[in-house]
Every structure is written in C-alpha cells, then in structure tokens.
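Sequence design from tokenized structure. All designs in this work follow the same two-part layout: the structure record, then the generated sequence. An example of the structure record is given first.
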C-alpha cells in the first residue's frame, strides 16, 4: 500500500454537473481521513447566491 501522505498531497475531481463529484469526494475524504472542499459551497458563500441563481441571472464562468 502506498503511503498516501507522501505520494498524494491533493486530489481533484472534475467532470460534468450532477455526476457525483461531491458525493464521491466526501466518501473519499472519509476513507482517507482528509478534508473535502466543495467548490460549489465556496462559490455560493462568495456570491451570496445559490448555484441555480448564479446561472439563471448571469453568464457565470467559474
């Protein structure tokens, strides 16, 4: 088994909307005992709008 602390500093999940990135990143973070950061949550907090509101009212590019 690899020593994950030495081999992996960060894991990023990319893909189309609604394909399970958030769900799987949470499960993976629990399995590896590492933090999970959800970019949607960061954007919602920064913009003070939900993701649907952002796409409904702007031509948002993030």
């Amino acid at each position: 088994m690899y020593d994950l602390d030495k081999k992996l500093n960060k894991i990023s999940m990319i893909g189309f909307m609604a394909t399970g990135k958030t769900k799987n990143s949470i499960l993976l973070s629990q399995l590896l005992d590492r933090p999970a950061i959800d970019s949607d949550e960061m954007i919602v907090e920064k913009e003070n709008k939900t993701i649907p509101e952002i796409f409904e009212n702007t031509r948002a590019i993030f």
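The chain has a mean pLDDT of 84. We note this feature because it recurs in several other targets discussed in the main text.
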